[in-house]
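Hey, I was hoping to borrow your eyes for a little while. I've been puzzling over a protein and I'd love to understand its fold better. The fold is given in discrete form, as structure tokens running alongside the sequence. I'd be grateful if you could look everything over and explain what you see. No rush at all, and the record is pasted right below.
>
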Amino acid sequence: MRIGDVLDPDDISIYRSLAGGLVAAHVLHGSANPIGGQSQFIKLRWGSLPEALKVEGCPPTIKFALGENVKQSNWATATRRAIADTDGRRAAHARRVPAALDYERAWKAYEKKKAGIPPRRDLELDALLDVVRGTRLVHCHSYRRTRSSP
């Protein structure tokens, strides 16, 4: 998901944030997935057009999550997920980089031939290629809930 695609300049939280003195924000995706959405820097402009919220010239970013939300250990009704430990979360990230490089190779092969059906556009892999190239910044948060001993 790209936050820039779902900006709502009429959201009451923008109005309230402006009233409290906030003028800009780095809007991040949620933390339920190891590789979240593409984030967006915005200038708060109540009632403007969505595109007018985006701050030009800011580096593109993406959010990675390694904490408790990914493994859903703090959800009362959660069923066990495949990514239930630190190694699983690391592996999820590690699998996507080769996938992004394969995706890039497929696009380069298609561009060279200009024949057949082009590869399916994948916004996540496009963003990960930017990370690999060093043109997209990663916002990665991780925390570990500790249990107190009885």
About this structure: The domain at 3-141 is CATH 3.20.20.140 (TIM Barrel). The chain has one domain: 3-141. The two ends are 42 Å apart (CA to CA).
